[in-house]
Specification:
Layout lengths: L2 H4 L13 H13 L2 H8 L3 H15 L4 E4 L2 E4 L1 H29 L1 E7 L1 H8 L3 H7 L3 E7 L13 E6 L6 E8 L2 E4 L2 H6 L12 E4 L4 H10 L7 E4 L3 H9 L4 E5 H10 L16 E7 L6 H21 L7
Parallel strand pairs: 3-4, 3-5, 8-9, 8-10
Antiparallel strand pairs: 1-2, 5-11, 6-11, 7-10
């Protein structure tokens, strides 16, 4: 019967390889040139270090150290062998780091509106990657809903009032609405008071409720206004930047455009709608990936910082 049959933890030693403990002791002594310091580093006694070195020298058949009193020096054979052993340990350490790094990596699939990705998120992603290099973000810009429970995405960033059943919804930013237009269009056709909006083409996405909320806020009937219905808010902003009409500005997405002067918000007021804003939507089970929680926390921080900076560009309440 083999020893491994009696003891499942036993392992047959290789005649080509010395014991690992002896090699570790040799590398430490060779690097430190001290049996005492090697023992302190390896948390073993100096006599145990000496035993490991003797075992190794007997296995190799050559002396590895010259011992003169308290001093220790590598022999020529010892110096050559140390280079090989140290290199082998370095390779093992590198491979171990790689394996641990790969094991710690997480992927996070984020479903989000194209307008949020293009006008706000993408310009700030470097900050998240620097804070969390172990997380691989996969962005899926889409207008369509995804099945979070079915694993189509780990988290969704959506715009609305947050009333999505069977899902966990966390408000990231409440929306403030104000008409925005290009400086060129504002110069040709001034927007000095709310009623002036009726002289413009209103650019609307698939959510005309934004214009309705603003109109109720200022007490204006826009039923007879000219409207250009567009599918995606990204296209609404592009049309506004091109001077084709007035867009209902979503504060988070137009703040950078206002700071650059690409758009202007001439009216000194903004409207709000109950619950309307950007939401982090997660599976309703309460589980989810730890990376999703880190991403939501980072989004909150970035939105708060963007809000404090963007408030200087938005009209005062």
């Amino acid at each position: 019967m083999l020893d491994t049959d009696r003891n499942p933890d036993a392992m047959r030693s290789s005649p080509a390889l010395p014991p690992l403990h002896a090699l570790r002791a040799f590398e430490a002594v060779g690097r430190l040139l001290s049996f005492r310091r090697a023992g302190e580093e390896l948390l073993i006694t100096q006599s145990a270090v000496s035993h490991h070195i003797r075992t190794l020298e007997q296995s190799l058949g050559v002396p590895l150290f010259d011992r003169k009193g308290r001093s220790v020096a590598l022999t020529a054979a010892g110096a050559h062998y140390l280079g090989k052993v140290a290199g082998a340990f370095a390779l093992i350490a590198e491979g171990t780091r790689d394996i641990r790094s790969d094991a710690a990596r997480q992927s996070l699939v984020v479903s989000l509106l194209p307008s949020f990705a293009a006008n706000w998120l993408v310009a700030r992603l470097d900050g998240f990657r620097e804070m969390h290099p172990q997380i691989d973000l996969v962005l899926d810009p889409t207008l369509n809903w995804v099945n979070l429970a079915g694993g189509e995405a780990d988290i969704a960033i959506r715009y609305g009032v947050g009333a999505w059943p069977d899902l966990r919804c966390e408000l990231l930013a409440a929306e403030r609405l104000m008409p925005v237009l290009s400086p060129e269009l504002a110069a040709r056709r001034p927007l000095a008071r709310p009623a002036d909006i009726l002289d413009h083409t209103l650019l609307a996405s698939h959510r005309p409720t934004e214009w309705e909320a603003w109109a109720r806020h200022v007490g204006l009937d826009i039923a007879a206004s000219r409207q250009l219905q567009l599918t995606d808010y990204n296209i609404v902003l592009q049309a506004a930047l091109a001077g084709q009409g007035v867009a209902m500005g979503r504060s988070l997405l137009v703040a950078d455009h206002l700071r650059r002067g690409a758009l202007v918000a001439p009216l000194p007021d903004f409207a709000t709608a109950a619950g309307l804003g950007y939401w982090a939507v997660l599976p309703g089970s309460g589980g989810g990936k730890p990376a999703a929680a880190l991403f939501v926390s980072w989004l909150r921080q970035e939105i708060a910082e963007a809000g404090s900076a963007g408030s200087r560009s938005l009209p005062p309440k």
